[in-house]
Design a protein that fits this description.
Chain lengths: 387, 187
């Protein structure tokens, strides 16, 4: 009987196997209590079917969508997030900036084995002491101590002593400014000095960039493009005698959204990097043949192309305003480059966002056997576009 | 964009896309399941404000969980499981509080006073059921979930869900036996 009772329930739910239907109908005809149960169930089902179906109120629906996709607008909150992003960015950039100071001699007084009276010294610098070309386009490169003699060069500059002395800004010998003709098209248009010294090639350190294999079903809407410009705020070394070249500093990013808040991609850019490096020269006075070493300092402000891979993450804490953080590892012709940036992006439309932030850069470069570093803090601003 | 032709699994996958696409996909899923979930929350929690809180929370958790890669085989059951956990947590938290029952729930307006009374009786009987039977009765009879969905949401076999629903109905029938006889004569 229990079996048939169960079957009656299944029958009313339309879930009884067809092979059992004949048997249940036979049982219903035979047992009045089963028929009564069947009637009661029909009555219950009918009542339940007529229960009021409540739909979510429109206000509740709106609340759900606002919470998930728009949130509540708060100007104070937006400003707070923006300010927080900038402050964190500054701190991070300063940390990068100061972390690398150890690698830069800060002053000419660090010269080793300085002779008692140097100004009278005249010597010919051996060819291998010539400063290597370490940039695509050299701006204002000149040695800042000792004498280079017997060598014509855009960067050659005679000075009176290793420390102090009168300095002439050598604008007449290397006033080479690359010209940036249009937004995003500032390729190295600058001409190099005709008397550029002999070049000792620096090994290429830029790692090969790998891009994913193209497949037929590429999710194009996950790609993000970004154009940024940068303004130098701080640098180490600070080069007093070299004017920063008037070039458009820009970056192009192409990213792929691997998850809603995470983007990886490749980037290229171009910007000047202040460089200050030295070489140790072995000297000998002519009259007394006294031997000594001297550290020869060079300063220059090359404009370098760089490329690298980046990881970008952002948090959509508030509507349209999303703080972001980014790290980049890449390289230039002269050495590896590391960048970290934080800032805030302001979503203008679904596909377009403005970005503002700060970034810290550290560039390592090698001159002969020595490795030097340069650090910069840039203000960045740009436009991000989703495909 | 019209996503009505998309399957649940496809729409679930689109929730990881950019915001405009995700919102459209979410809207389609919402239109399919919001009413069910809303009624479930109202039935379980009995209080409109609590039910609306639980409803919001359910869809928020659902959307967050969709941001992680996962395969979706039975979306209504998955959504129901989230709603169930949310409602149970809420009930647990408010067990000590005095809960005001929703007047609309207790006294829904219907044209037929006999049927209205019958429904009230069923609701009363359902309240007397043990938790596991009450839950399955609500899901099956009030919400209209399929056994496969119930089984997945409650983490039991489909057969167990069927048997449990049968037991729940039998108990309700027993509780209401004297009334049903009377009603059967009038209806």
């Amino acid at each position: 009987m229990e079996k048939y009772s169960f079957w009656v329930h299944l029958l009313l739910e339309g879930e009884l196997e067809p092979s059992k239907e004949a048997e249940i109908f036979e049982a219903l005809a035979k047992h009045p209590e089963l028929r009564e149960e069947f009637r009661h169930l029909v009555l219950m089902n009918r009542s339940l079917r007529e229960q009021v179906v409540r739909t979510p109120p429109p206000k509740l629906t709106q609340t759900v969508f606002d919470r998930l996709f728009r949130g509540k607008r708060s100007i104070a909150g937006s400003l707070l997030t923006f300010g927080g992003g900038v402050v964190v960015g500054l701190l991070l950039s300063l940390a990068i900036f100061f972390a690398g100071r150890w690698s830069q001699p800060s002053h000419l007084s660090e010269v080793v084995a300085t002779p008692p009276e140097l100004p009278v010294v005249e010597f010919t610098m051996p060819s291998h002491y010539q400063p290597p070309v370490v940039s695509d386009t050299i701006h204002h490169r000149f040695p800042v101590s000792v004498v280079e003699q017997g060598r014509e060069g855009a960067g050659a500059q005679e000075v009176a002593s290793l420390e102090g002395g009168d300095w002439d800004t050598p604008t007449e010998v290397n006033a080479v400014y690359p010209v940036s003709v249009s937004l995003g098209a500032s390729v190295a248009l600058g001409t190099e000095s005709p008397s550029r010294p002999s070049v000792e090639p620096i090994p290429q350190r830029l790692p090969a960039l790998t891009v994913g294999n193209p497949v037929s079903s590429v999710p194009w809407d996950r790609f993000r493009g970004e154009y940024r410009e940068t303004i130098s705020l701080l640098s180490n070394p600070r080069i007093q005698r070299v004017t920063e070249p008037l070039v458009r500093q820009f970056q192009l990013h192409l990213g792929y959204q691997i998850a809603p808040q995470h983007i990886v991609g490749v980037a290229v850019g171009r910007e000047p990097f202040p460089q200050r490096f030295y070489l140790i020269a072995h000297m000998e006075t002519e009259e007394e043949h006294e031997e000594y070493d001297v550290r020869v300092y060079y300063e220059q402000m090359p404009v370098l192309w760089w490329a690298g891979g980046f990881y970008h993450t952002q948090w959509e804490l508030l509507p349209r305003v999303a703080p972001f953080a980014e790290v980049l590892v890449g390289g230039t012709r002269v050495g590896p480059l590391f960048k970290a940036a934080v800032g805030t992006s302001l979503q203008l439309t679904d596909n377009v966002a403005l970005q503002l932030g700060v970034e810290g850069s550290a560039l390592l470069y090698q001159v002969y056997e020595k490795v030097f570093a340069t650090q910069k803090v840039n203000l960045i601003y740009g436009l991000k576009v989703g495909l | 964009m019209d996503y009505s032709g998309y399957s649940d699994a496809e729409l679930f996958g689109l929730l990881r896309e950019k915001k405009s696409i995700a919102e459209a996909a979410f809207a389609e899923l919402y239109s399919r399941y919001a009413t069910r979930i809303y009624n479930y929350c109202r039935t379980i929690l009995r209080n409109k404000e609590d039910a609306e809180d639980a409803f919001q929370e359910t869809f928020a958790k659902f959307y967050q969980s969709a941001q992680q890669e996962r395969e979706m085989t039975n979306l209504p059951a998955y959504l129901l499981r989230i709603a169930r956990n949310t409602c149970l947590n809420m009930k647990r938290q408010r067990r000590q509080e005095i809960v005001s029952f929703d007047e609309e729930y207790m006294h829904p307006t219907r044209d037929d006073p006999d049927r209205e009374e019958m429904l009230k009786l069923i609701e009363t009987a359902v309240e007397l059921l043990p938790d596991d039977l009450r839950e399955i009765f609500i899901l099956r009879e009030y919400q209209g979930y399929r056994y496969a969905e119930i089984a997945q949401a409650l983490n039991i076999s489909e057969e167990a869900a069927r048997v449990r629903a049968y037991r729940a109905r039998k108990q309700v029938q027993k509780i209401l036996a004297p009334y049903i006889k009377d009603f059967a004569q009038h209806m």
